[in-house]
Design goal:
The structure holds 2 protein chains of 2 kinds. By secondary structure, chain A is mainly beta. Chain A is built from no helices and 11 strands. In chain A, the strands form 2 sheets. In chain A, strands 2, 4, 5, 9, 10 and 11 form a 6-stranded mixed β-sheet that branches. In chain A, about 30% of the residues are buried. Helices cover about 0% and strands about 50% of the residues of chain B. Chain B contains no helices and 11 strands. In chain B, strands 2, 4, 5, 6, 9, 10 and 11 form a 7-stranded mixed β-sheet that branches. In chain B, strands 1-3-8-7 form a 4-stranded antiparallel β-sheet, with no helix packed on it. The N and C termini of chain B lie far apart (about 35 Å). The chains are: A mainly beta, B mainly beta. At the A-B interface, strand 5 and strand 10 of A face strand 5 and strand 10 of B.
Chain lengths: ~110, ~120
């Protein structure tokens, strides 16, 4: 079964620091690669997404870097804040026989300390 | 614009019972996907429906089933519940016909506890 490998499982960063989460994928369809943020008791919410023909996308403090040849992409959170403490999921549109389906990484629990 | 609505939000069942969960997608979204979320397994894909047809299916036993209605609303059913079925069940909708349509919008989930 095709997977999306996400690391690290957990991450502790000081306030103001940079949080980096990495993902690797297998064969995918040509569609967006999204990142989701999930707070306890809530469903995942779309944070930022990147097209596979773009190498980087930045939205505020959040940046996705995409390396198509290496089949890897990462999320950088600049100037991390306590409010960023959440679980982050990457996702890739993996190919299936009938269509593509969004397959998620196992998640990274981020804790931003004061 | 209303988001994805899931009902019920919380429910408790006993082993052997069955459960039906409901999902109303964002207006205009024709694709509905279901995921099971557990602490150890993350988000596991259950199935996806588009225009009342199951388009994709994950690796779950036949006890897990779903359907989609003509108004795009979807239900999933789990029969003969097992303790291991305790999880957060998430529904997500998407446009499903344009680039970027795989970007899903999730509901808050239905928290199922099996005793």
């Amino acid at each position: 079964q095709q997977q999306v490998k996400q690391s690290p499982q957990s991450l502790i960063v000081q306030k103001g620091g940079i949080s980096i989460i990495n993902c690797a994928y297998e064969n995918t369809a040509f569609d967006y690669f999204p990142w989701y943020q999930q707070f306890p008791g809530k469903g995942p919410a779309l944070l930022i997404a990147i097209r596979p023909d773009v190498s980087e996308k930045k939205e505020g403090r959040f940046t996705i870097s995409f390396n198509k040849s290496a089949k890897q992409f990462s999320l950088h959170i600049m100037d991390s804040q306590p409010g960023d403490s959440a679980t982050y999921f990457c996702a890739a549109p993996l190919l299936t026989v009938t269509a593509s389906k969004l397959t998620f990484g196992t998640g990274t629990r981020l804790q931003v300390t004061l | 614009k209303a988001g994805v609505t899931q009902t019920p939000r919380y429910l408790i069942k006993t082993r052997g019972q069955q459960v039906t969960l409901s999902c109303s997608p964002i207006s205009g979204h024709r694709s509905v996907s279901w995921y099971q979320q557990t602490p150890g397994q993350g988000l596991q894909f259950l199935f996806e429906y588009f225009s009342e047809t199951q388009r994709n299916k994950g690796n779950f036993p036949g006890r897990f089933s779903g359907r989609q209605f003509s108004n795009s609303r979807s239900e999933m059913n789990v029969s003969t519940l097992e303790l291991g079925d305790s999880a957060l069940y998430l529904c997500a909708s998407s446009l499903a016909w344009a680039r970027g349509a795989n970007v899903l919008t999730f509901g808050a989930g239905s928290r199922l506890t099996v005793l």
